[in-house]
Amino acid sequence: MANIDSYRIEIDGEWTLNDLHEFPYAYTQAYSFLYSVILNETVEDERLRITFVAHPWRGGFSAVNFFHYLYELIPAAERPNVISIQYSSPGWIELSLVLAVGLALKRVINNICDAALKVNETYNEIYQGLQRRRLLSLESKSAELRLDREHLAFVEESSKTFARIMGFENLDELNNLAPNKLAALKMMLAFYRRARKLKDYQDDNKLKF
Questions:
Q1: N or C: which end of the chain has fewer CB within 10 A?
Q2: What pLDDT tens digit does each residue of the chain (209 aa) get?
Q3: CA 192, 95, 170, 56 torsion: positive or negative?
């Protein structure tokens, strides 16, 4: 079993009922992704490999299913579970979770906050580059996917650049789990969209990781 510990997120400001739905949803999705790439060698479950290769990544439906299945594969004790909540100024949400995963997610969110414009510009450039090359609509689940030299170079360089500026330190593990590097890049972009939602909460001074 992974090292489980308590992890406190400071909260402040005014929260709505919608916040109480959106924040834990985005957090558990981002946590599930990092859990799968950080602890993949300890997860003795064929379903993890299948989850990473099963989706075509041609639209949002793949991402929704992907993150849902990753969460379901986490043992119940290692999912983010609420220990306590205090809503005041300031307050907190205290979770039990795999500390290495919680800290990795904190690092990513803080990196995105510190370089928000650069990270988002890079995301947009990569996304537009995938569009121009018609790679967004290309089914990405095939392990035998073959890209021409220019497309492969774009995918590899984009993945390395985006992982670096986002503070994502498990690109090699992600590439090993994914059926190919295009699928891995699309997964990382989908992870960023979840982390960006968490970054917005910190920007709005509603919480601090």
A1: N
A2: 678 999 999 999 999 999 999 999 999 999 999 999 998 766 667 888 888 988 888 766 678 889 999 999 999 999 999 999 999 878 999 999 999 999 999 999 999 999 999 999 999 999 999 999 999 888 787 766 788 889 999 999 999 999 999 999 999 999 999 999 999 999 999 999 999 999 999 999 999 98
A3: negative
Candidates 55, 72, 73; CA nearest to 184 is 55
Neighbours of 158 (CB within 10 A): 22
Cα 37 from chain centroid (whole Å): 10
| Helix, strand and coil in the chain, % to nearest 5 | 65, 10, 25
C-beta of residue 206 within 8 angstroms of C-beta of residue 195:
no
Phi, psi at 150, each rounded to 5°:
-65, -45
Place of tokens 């079993």: 1
d(CA 35, CA 21): 21
**What number of other Cβ atoms are within 10 A of residue 87's Cβ?**
13
Phi, psi of 73 (to 5 degrees): -80, -15
List the one residue out of 33, 39, 59, 192 whose CA is nearest residue 131: 59
Give the integer Cα–Cα distance in Å for 80 and 76. 9
